[in-house]
């Protein structure tokens, strides 16, 4: 019988996850299908239970459900300390994981960027920023979190213990002095950027988690300034690959997944 996996989010319209995972199923000859469902926040628990009752292998959980989904699973230590899950695996119990953190670190590793001892500026203090900042601290980076709403950055850093939270007042100086800049906000999807090109310089690494468009205004400015760039497709693919491994116990072909996503994005 066909195995089913799905992503639950709200809204869910433009997710690339089905294209990415279905390409991996085809390449590996696994008889499975990845679906996407728009689920209202107040029905998240029912949707998870329903998917489990129907025999789904597992789920991805995306915006805005990543924190709420914690109450419907047994999170592993990483997901518990981040305070959000994006992957559920069904078995005797519902296990919860957060592959955003590992996906972001894998994207950095593949680009041969070491963050240990480096000054890393994370813009944003939402769910994605939380997972990334957590992993960075774990890898020994010196982390600064800057967020439009300063209080959220301060609270995130208090929870992390070893990071500095701030608002956007000093953003130009912080961008100029960091070794690695990570945009973990949603800014960039509609042609905007929080960063001016003249704040960036050669020798820096700029990583944007926004994947549509693959080259955001931030990455374009970074490329012009001579900085190394990493796009959001890399993170999407590696968080997806990690989830795939948790569901099926095999490493999926990340190159096939990446090509499928890039083709779908190019086709619009
Ligand atoms: P996610 O789970 O994807 O991180 P989120 O929890 O809604 O989503 O967080 C969105 C992040 O993008 C927040 O850091 C948000 O800043 P605020 O905390 O001030 O809301 C940031 N963000 C969204 N739109 C923004 C904008 N126009 N300018 C600056 N920051 C923005």
From TrEMBL:
Keyword presence, Chloroplast: no
Quinate/shikimate 5-dehydrogenase/glutamyl-tRNA reductase domain span: 114-186
Gene Ontology biological process terms in this record: amino acid biosynthetic process; aromatic amino acid family biosynthetic process; chorismate biosynthetic process; shikimate metabolic process
Gene3D superfamilies: Leucine Dehydrogenase, chain A, domain 1 (3.40.50.10860), NAD(P)-binding Rossmann-like Domain (3.40.50.720)
Key words of the record: Amino-acid biosynthesis, Aromatic amino acid biosynthesis, NADP, Oxidoreductase
Reaction it catalyzes: shikimate + NADP(+) = 3-dehydroshikimate + NADPH + H(+)
Domain of life: Archaea
Any one GO molecular-function label of the UniProt entry: shikimate 3-dehydrogenase (NADP+) activity
EC number: 1.1.1.25
Pathway given in the UniProt record: Metabolic intermediate biosynthesis; chorismate biosynthesis; chorismate from D-erythrose 4-phosphate and phosphoenolpyruvate: step 4/7
Pfam (any one): SDH_C
Family note: Belongs to the shikimate dehydrogenase family.
NCBIfam families per UniProt: aroE (TIGR00507), PRK00258.3-3 (NF001319)
Full protein name: Shikimate dehydrogenase (NADP(+))
The species this protein was found in: Methermicoccus shengliensis
Source organism phylogeny: Archaea, Methanobacteriati, Methanobacteriota, Stenosarchaea group, Methanomicrobia
Recorded name of the encoding gene: aroE
């Amino acid at each position: 019988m066909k195995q089913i996996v799905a992503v639950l989010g709200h809204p869910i319209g433009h997710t690339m996850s089905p294209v990415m995972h279905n390409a991996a199923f085809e390449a590996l000859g696994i008889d499975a299908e990845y679906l996407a469902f728009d689920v209202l926040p107040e029905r998240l628990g029912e949707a998870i239970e329903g998917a489990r009752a129907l025999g789904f292998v597992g789920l991805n959980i995306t915006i805005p459900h990543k924190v709420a989904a914690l109450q419907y699973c047994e999170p592993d230590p990483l997901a518990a300390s981040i305070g959000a899950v994006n992957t559920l695996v069904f078995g005797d119990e519902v296990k919860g994981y957060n592959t955003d953190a590992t996906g972001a670190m894998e994207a950095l590793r593949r680009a041969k960027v070491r963050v240990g001892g480096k000054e890393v500026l994370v813009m944003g203090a939402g769910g994605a920023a939380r997972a990334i900042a957590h992993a960075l601290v774990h890898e020994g980076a010196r982390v600064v979190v800057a967020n439009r709403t300063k209080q959220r950055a301060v609270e995130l850093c208090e929870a992390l213990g070893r990071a500095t939270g701030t608002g956007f007042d000093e953003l130009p100086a912080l961008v100029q002095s960091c070794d690695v800049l990570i945009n973990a906000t949603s800014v960039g999807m509609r042609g905007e950027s929080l960063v001016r090109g003249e704040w960036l310089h050669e020798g820096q690494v700029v990583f944007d988690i926004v994947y549509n468009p693959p080259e955001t205004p931030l990455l374009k400015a970074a490329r012009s300034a001579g900085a190394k760039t990493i796009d959001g497709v890399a993170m999407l693919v590696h968080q997806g690959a990690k989830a795939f491994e948790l569901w099926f116990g095999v490493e999926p072909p990340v190159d096939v997944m990446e090509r499928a996503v890039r083709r779908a994005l190019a086709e619009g």
